[in-house]
Amino acid sequence: MTLSPTHALEARYYTDPDIFRVERNGLFLRSWQFACHASELADPGDYVCFDIVGESLFAVRTRDFGIRAFFNVCQHRAHPLLEGSGNVRRSIVCPYHAWTYELTGELRSGPNLAAVPGFDRSAIRLSEAAVENYCGFIFVNLDRNAAPMDTLFPGVRADVSAHVPDIQRLKPLEWLAIPEACNWKVSVENYSECYHCQRNHPTFSTGVIRPETYDIQPYGYCLHHTTECQDFDRMSYAIDKEAPRSRVYSSWYLWPTFSFQVYPGNRLNTYHWRPIDVDHVMVWRGWLTVDGAEDPVVRDLAVQDRDTTVAEDIRLVEGVQRGLRSRGYRPGPLVLDPACGVNSEHSIATLQTWMREAVDGAGLADVQVANPAHGQS
Questions:
Q1: Strand (E) positions, the chain?
Q2: Cα first-last separation, the chain
């Protein structure tokens, strides 16, 4: 029997505004999206506003030290309630007509409401999203019945925590916003393989990792990247050689728009993607340290990453987006090596299955995810 190769997705998945609308009104409304770090909501009344493909929301710390997330819209006449980040003390007050809400979303009061016949204050509350605190990172899902993150990403919470024992003490040191003129899936695909690394990322490939050890394996809706670090005398930044797992690079990409990365030396950083339209995405790069303490090694690593890998990837993904609009493009076969490894695109085949599923099939809400068959590293 002759086997047929698996081909890459058709260009329309990346260039058709109608497909982006399907994703915006489906996938992004029922998948877990990063909102903020828990340390940004330290005290009751602290809030952070954020967008999910055009929907404005905010996360807020309640008086019982829980975290809730609401659509950022007053239930009276639809004015936005909050901007940016800050602290609202004990209640949320609409700047338009001063309707006032509890931190838990219930309407508390409003001017002259007693004059309205039959007015039922208890029937009015802010529209709410589901929230999870995942290793200190706050995620929201606009589908209140969404499967928990531990179901979709089995074992990842424990695995990340094992690689970064101080993860609950981490705070953001630096956020970097990276505009890319490409479809969000082009950027995610580029992140999700290292077939291109040795040719395009010389600093990463010779001063951080050993490419010959690079591998990516899926479990649940996660792609787990692993590799050994370069020899210590060839590393492009200083690391604690005695730190647990100091020789390991690991990354956990959580479908569809977030990734944890642990650089050698237990340096945790993150990616999250904010799709804007069919041709544009904002990629946020986060660097964290214990208690948010200043760390010159992390600062230097962030600069190195920005000036090398990030800059190199912008050129690549924007070139791909232009090529996808060419009349001459015919999707070629993916390089699927049964042995996996750095020169295989098996992770792209998995990723593109999820992409087709989100547009053409049942999607996340109806798919049962089994625990990974392999052990955690």
A1: 33-37, 46-52, 55-61, 67-71, 85-87, 91-93, 100-102, 107-109, 128-134, 137-141, 170-180, 215-219, 222-228, 248-254, 258-263, 267-277, 280-290
A2: 37
By C-alpha distance, which of 338, 376, 339 is closest to 222?
Answer: 376
Amino acid at 57: L
Confirm if 310 and 285 have CB atoms less than 8 A apart: yes
Check whether the bond before 256 is cis (ω within 30° of 0): yes
Confirm if 278 and 183 have CB atoms less than 8 A apart: yes
CB contact at 8 A, 191 and 173:
no
Q: What is the pLDDT of residues 1-54, one digit of tens each?
A: 556 789 999 999 999 999 999 999 999 999 999 999 999 999 999 999 999 999
CB 108 within 8 A of CB 91: yes
Burial degree of 42 (CB within 10 A; 0-12, 13-18, 19+): exposed
* Distance from C-alpha of 20 to C-alpha of 25, rounded to nearest angstrom: 9
DSSP 36-98: EEGGGG-STTEEEEEEETTEEEEEEE-TTS-EEEEES--TTT------SEEE-TTEEE-TTT-
- Number of residues that this document lists for the chain: 377
* pLDDT band per the 50, 70, 90 thresholds, residue 363: very low
* Paired strand residues for 179: 282
Number of other residues whose CB lies within 10 A of the CB of residue 148? 12
* Cβ neighbourhood burial of 333 (10 Å; 0-12, 13-18, 19+): exposed
- Tokens 């010779």, residue located: 206
Least confident of 34-43, 124-133, 192-201: 192-201
Using an 8 Å Cβ cutoff, are 72 and 88 in contact?
A: no
- Which of 271, 272, 157, 152 lies closest to 221 in space, CA to CA? 152
Could you give the CA distance from residue 187 to residue 275 in angstroms, rounded to a whole number? 10
Phi then psi for residue 265, to 5 deg, are: 95, 15
Residues ≥6 apart with Cβ < 8 Å to 207:
230, 234, 235, 236, 237
CA 231 to centroid of chain Cα atoms: 30
